[in-house]
Amino acid sequence: MPTRTAFCSCGQLSIEVQGDPRGIGLCHCLACQRRTGSVFAALASFATPYRVSGTATEYVRTGDQGAKFRFRFCPFCGTNLFHTEEGYEQSSVAVAVGAIADPDFPPPQDSVYDCRRHSWVRLPPGTRTYEKDPTA
């Protein structure tokens, strides 16, 4: 079973996950654009357990459908490293794909909030797209 470790920019905060990702997706919602400072968030979901090293600061945001997401980021360099959804903390964690820093990491399968995707962003072939949140 593969082990992957994602690090913040300064290396103070890390998360270690086991196994293959349950899913890989892109989110183009405005909240993710602001949160990441990029035009989309690239996230990979992993099953628990996971191991966190270092100190994290938390920010809770309520999504469009009312779910609460607890984002963890490094208090020193500001890297937004991972998050959990309240009520599902014991089963999964979402990790920022870029923080895994593996150019061979698999491509996304899903793209959500495509209605907010910048026109110049091209998705990998076969990526499923959803105008908004597919659970809505």
What descriptive keywords fit this protein?
2 helices; about 140 residues; three-stranded antiparallel β-sheet; Metal Binding Protein, Guanine Nucleotide Exchange Factor, Chain A; eight-stranded mixed β-sheet; single chain
Summarize the structure.
This protein has 136 residues and is mainly beta. Helices cover 8% and strands 40% of the residues. It has a single domain (3-117), classed as Metal Binding Protein, Guanine Nucleotide Exchange Factor, Chain A.
Commentary on this structure:
With 136 residues, the chain is mainly β. The chain has one domain (3-117): Metal Binding Protein, Guanine Nucleotide Exchange Factor, Chain A, CATH 2.170.150. Helices cover 8% and strands 40% of the residues. Belongs to the Gfa family. Keywords: Lyase, Metal-binding, Zinc.
Task: Summarize model confidence as the mean pLDDT.
Answer: 94
The span between the termini is: 34 Å
Spatial sequence of strands, sheet with the most strands: 6-7-8-9-4-3-10-11
At CATH level 3, the topology is Metal Binding Protein, Guanine Nucleotide Exchange Factor, Chain A
User: Mind summarizing the main beta sheet?
Assistant: 8 strands, mixed
How many domains? 1
Task: Find the count of extended strands (DSSP E, 2+ residues).
Answer: 11
Q: Determine and state the CATH class.
A: Mainly Beta
Shape: globular
Structural class: mainly beta
Q: What pattern of helices and strands is seen along the backbone?
A: EEEHEEEEEEHEE
Structure annotation, total helices = 2
Percent of residues in helices: under 10%
- Spans of at least 5 consecutive residues with low confidence: none
